[in-house]
Task: structure prediction
Amino acid sequence: MNIKKIQLNFKNGYLTPLESDTIFWYVFAKHFSELETIFNKFKAWKAPFLLSNWFIDWKIARPVIFHDSNHEKTSLLEDLKEEKEKKKLKSLNFIPFKKDILRVIFEDPDKIPEILKETYEEDKKTEYISSEMKNSMPRFSQGETVPFVINDIKFSTAKYNIYVKIFDESDFEKFFELMQKTLLSIGWGKWVSRWYGKISLCELVDLSQEEKEAFDYIEQLKKNNQIIVLNNYKPSDTEIDNMDLNKSYLQFINKNTKTSDKNTFKWNMKFIAPGSVVYVNDWEIVGSYYQVWTSFNFWYLF
Result:
């Protein structure tokens, strides 16, 4: 197995984050005839490569893990001040992807507030959210325009990384070539027709030394049956039975599936989100996929 990263940059703002299951669907849907052999390997539980969700360069999803507090109660005023700081740090979704920081989170919880405070200050410089006013011309409007607002447009000064575990170099090379072609020519997500989500950079690069050390630490955690989830992961029923849910720290995301003519209502999916920490009893953890008529989506664990 080889781990690399796909590095991305936007020409402007974007509205839709790149998530592992959606990337697979997007590329397979656009180039199915060219990727059918690779698709069938995923369907047969023989994934030739795995994708993480995307993260801001040099960061990953903050692990959701809690420690018993040794804090002694003081005055009400000090407690309120501390609570304000906790809420601010709790809002952090990402942490620097470094071995030392992961080690603190899992082994030295007393230092967590200090590390998160530094990260919070950096986050304010990296990404911001805006809204823009646009005009549209409805059908049969006789030339009249209607104003509307596009909300939650994200702008970033940083690049983004999608990590890749590669088991078959040739299969991934073929998939990435078409993924790169699609993202650079079409863009990604909502409102690409209005020039949002346009991508200026999509390249495969090696991990930095810090990232290699961080992944080595994640592998060490696996020896203690701890898994940090880095993509959209849907466990099978067997895998759920294999988890120690009393120890695990899970957060979930809901999505709606593609529907069909016979089902006007979309089926709701719930899967484990990046940053979750899963404790398992043994190592039969792979993930799953769903099928609704001819629509597939893969949720293998990165």
